[in-house]
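Deviations from the work plan: none for this task. Representative record:
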Amino acid sequence: MIKAILIFNNHGKPRLSKFYEHYTEDTEQQIIRETFHLVSKRDENVCNFLEGGLLIGGSDNKLIYRHYATLYFVFCVDSSESELGILDLIQVFVETLDKCFENVCELDLIFHMDKVHNILAEMVMGGMVLETNMSEIITQAEAQSKMEKSEAGIAGAPARAVSAVKNMNLPEMPKNINIGDISIKVPNLPSFK
Amino acid sequence: MALKIVKGSIDRMFDKNLQDLVRGIRNHKEDEAKYISTCIDEIKQELKQDNIAVKANAVCKLTYLQMLGYDVSWAAFNIVEVMSSSKFTYKRIGYLAASQCFHEGTDVIMLTTNQIRKDLSSPNQYDTGVALTGLSCFVTPDLARDLANDIMTLMSHTKPYIRKKAVLIMYKVFLKYPESLRPAFPRLKEKLEDPDPGVQSAAVNVICELARRNPKNYLSLAPLFFKLMTSSTNNWVLIKIIKLFGALTPLEPRLGKKLIEPLTNLIHSTSAMSLLYECVNTVIAVLISLSSGMPNHSASIQLCVQKLRILIEDSDQNLKYLGLLAMSKILKTHPKSVQSHKDLILQCLDDKDESIRLRALDLLYGMVSKKNLMEIVKKLMLHVDKAEGTTYRDELLTKIIDICSQSNYQYITNFEWYISILVELTRLEGTRHGHLIASQMLDVAIRVKAIRAFAVAQMATLLDNAHLLTGNTQRNGICEVLYAAAWICGEFAEHLEDPMLTLEAMLRPKVATLPGHIQAVYVQNAAKLFATVLQKHEGETDSQAAQETSQLLIDRLPLFVQSANLEVQERASCILQLVKYIQKLQQKNVEVAEEVTALFAGELNPVAPKAQKKVPIPEGLDLDAWINEPPSESESEDEKPKAVFAKEEPKHSRSRHTEVDEKELARRREARKQEQANNPFYIKASPSSQKVYDAPGVEHIPVVQIDLSVPLKVPGMPMSDQYVKLEEERRQKEKADKKKKEKKKKREKRGKGRKGDSGPESEEDITPAHHVDIVTEEMPENALPSDDDDKDPNDPHKALDIDLDKPLADSEKLPVRTHRPEVLKSPAEDRDDNTIPQETKKKSSKDKKEKKKDKEKDRKRSKEDKKKKKKHKDVEEELPESLPEEVVQSEETKEASDLDFWLSSAPVPPVAQVVTVSSSAAAATVDSSSAAAAESEPEELKDTEPDDTKSSKHKKKKQKKEKEEKEKKKKKRHHHHHHHHSDAGAEDSVQNGTVEDEEPLPPMSNYSLLAENSYIKMVCDIQGNHQDESKVVVSVIFENKSDSFLKSMEFNVLDSLNSKLQRPDGAGPHDGLTVPFQLPPGVSNEARFVFSVQSIVMPQKLKGTLTFIVKTDESSTHEKLDFKLHFTCTSYLITTPCYSDAYAKLLESGDLKGSSLRLEGVNMPFHHLLARICFHHHFSVVERIDSCASMYSRSIQGHHVCLLVKSSDQTVSIDAKCDEPSLLGNVLDEIKQTFSKC
């Protein structure tokens, strides 16, 4: 079981948090802070597994994370999950985001948290892995956004126009996560394809 | 209308959407909280509007704020409103928000039941999908109960997208509503074979998750999973299944045996590291579950260790980490295999990654032995020096202590060394683990009597140099060791060289800066020292010294009397008054020493932690009974309540109960002496060493003379390093008298079993430098063995511990709604809702009927199978065993017997590639095709069986499967070729080793008939032992052919000069071995016997007898069966791979003598010929060119046997070379025999 999926940036600002067990908002924040504290002090070239987040329960659990440019993707899982499998899953997740957002960067995640949630929902459901095939995930995600667009129809047009205008003066230029450039050794990505 | 829409959207245009909110927050970095609170106000306004779009937008923003830590539960009702929007866009927003913030305590959840049900049956698959996703996060017991039936219906939805979600969510439903598990399980199982890989994967996921918690209920699914494992190509699914098997094998070792082969193949064939790693993990689990010492599995262990080594050596830190993690699992059961990689693990200690270093440390814990402990700890001490000021250093410190103190100091041979290590550790600044070191010092000093003198000297030095430890501040945890130092010096003051000096050191003013509890100990022990000093000076004419001591105390103690710490104050003032009084007496020249000493007389015994808790309530003690009634308990106290404590032998009934009368005491003492005399590990008290104080019961505490090979006076701080050198020298000396060693070793082995009893001890042990007695911690008599690990009663998985094999009862149905409100429904839905449940009902009842039929059929079939099996055995298993597929097909009945049957049958073709791999690399290609043919035959046979229940659909499926399998085989074949060129040698080594035993090559079996009568049949196989050059293992399968119960089987062989049956220690040379099982009618089981042989160049026969008791209802009779055990020379050969270059060198060396053999009229394909030689005679193919092959094997005593086999129409010539001509001659004869038979 996956207990939680967290995405936060290099400063510990949460970009996405998905808990598959219930915690109060305060505890959730505490977990995020603690996880960030644990993960951020680790060097780039050390292993991606961590034992002993105190808050997300017990000795059975592990933190498995990857660091892409400005973002940490952290999965908290129990012993029924394969460590390397989860690392692959994170990679699939990020590549899927990359495809769906076209060169994903932190800003995409900041402004479209809902969309990220929707993509994640096609991969992991209630803490269990639903789908690992990237093209299947993308197909389903895109089919749903198409539905959304068709529902908005003409009525949605002005709103979109306005938000496009608003977007013109973004405070900063997107920094690419550009997962292609950062050399991450993925031991077995072919396994899921 | 249109106008209204446009107007609404224009309004909305200027509402803040999520992006605006985020942007706003980013622009208000200084007053974020304030900004957000205004935003929340806005959201509250928006939620009050009627427009659902506005509401959805607001809820979307709330979801974001929730992530930032704001409580949004107040908007729960609005979220439900948005969820029930008919538009997908809004619905999704609503469900997302709900999944983020709803939980069991959210009361509005009960309003959602109907809405969710409606969404589940929506014609739009994404509505359903979103509802399922949301529900998976916030399902409550009520929701689970109300919706279980709907979700179960969805499991058979036409769209795989829905099916997989429905299957996955069932797990959550089971957790919240355990009653649903049994009704839903058949369908869930069905989904394991769903045509869609996603659905299949989901089903595997769910069952794995269920099985992980309650594995025993899912054992019956093993055949199905086995099939999936050998057919699936989805790595995610494979990983899950393999992990599941890891959980199942401890419950069923036979399953493990079956698994080893396909897992080994996966290890060789997969390119995915994650899969490889999980395979290795499960193989480890299998090996742990199997009884150790089975020679055929040592190859598997080697394979695992070797693969793990590759992982650990990888530059990828993740692999390194996991490799170490898995290694530590092997360590528990097969420490030897891991210990050979000590270099690698020590290397990992230098890794820059802390997680890896910690893992390596864990491994070290299990790798120490008496031999290398000092060396390893020395290395760790170096690391401690290097790792300044990190938490890692503290970790190192605890690990050093753990390593040394494990299993009751089992590995410490020299306690002086250990004390010096502890003292060295005290020099660490700022460690948190001062108390740990302190408790070790205390423990060692109290329990290892021989070391007390040394320990006391060291502690005195520590006390003298206390200023070094306390340093400048008190933050230092290390000052805790002073607590131990003071106590040890005080308690064992008789060993002190200069108690006066120590006393002085303990009363320095600086002590007042120490923490209170340490000061208290200082004060108390100063008094003990005082007593010692007095006694020392007693009898001297000049009482000057004694009086000076009193004066010293009187001068210094007032400092402590003023202490703010109550404990210190109290003790100090007591002692001060005492000393003042003594001083008065001294001035009157009264002898006081004896009385003062009496204050501290008596030994303090180590009491085990939790000892108090473990005092059992004596039998018959009723705490509510009248207290004045004559207590019969006092008598029963000594009688152990046998049922519970049968195994616990109270070794240390140390009598602190002084109230026990003299007679009783004497009796106990006598009994104890008796026991000690019988216990070879107990060291008798020598009369020379007198105890200073003689409290009742003290004399039985073992007192040991110290035989020190090292001079004790080590001035100043000790250096542990010097012990390492000394130890080496000492050991070399010891090596000189080897004769003794052998004897001792044997004894030592026996001694190991008795951990916790009295550890390593003098005579019996090779290494200890001192005669050491480790006193066991005191435990109350009749203490309960510790097993109070209670499981969490709140574990939700407990409720899911449900027997799934029982047929469903009629009452077990998922609740179906009978009455529904008509409000929210369109007619179409109505129709849907009504028909679906009915359909399922019908189906399920039909299912049941079918199942009944099926069951009967299957029962018949399984009987037939059994008959068949018997027949097979009759022809010495020459025919292929029935296929697991068959079992899988009939598996719906789910009877335990099926599982047994599946497990007992030899592992066969779903993994046809196994055959190819194992027989010989060269013959691989052709073999597999033939095996495939062989496999399809029985399949067809089965199809032709009259079978009316099976639908045509079923057949189609099967055909498809066959196709898949064939395709797979092709792949594997290809793969195999590849391997043959790259690393054939390494491959073979393992497969040959592992597969042998369960060799599935249909027409071959190494089991030959040993003997048979009307009751029992014995077939046996003889194999050389890899590890021991003089041992062979005989596996005998006993099969009960009668209708009676066979028991008390004894297997005995008349030893020859050359070959002897290995009997347990203590058994006479003519005693038989008891076969460790009984045989119910029709059952067969396997036992292994080890023989030791001296010369292996000749075949030989041993006569033997099996005696057993036949037990029928009325009577039982003794029966016996004679047999002749035939050790062929072949059985001394071990399949050993050989590289072609090594092979060439071997032949060139000229050490080998040649011989040759011609076989005429051999009518079989060349690869069959090779396979036969490989299989029956334990050879491996080195190289094969057309119809010419070179083969190699090695005997258990290291003879090389090389064959060159050539074949040209029906004539086979074998040129052979070996360094032992008579062995070679015999092997060739046997080969000839093999082929003359066919």
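The CA atoms of residues 146 and 160 of chain A lie 15 Å apart.
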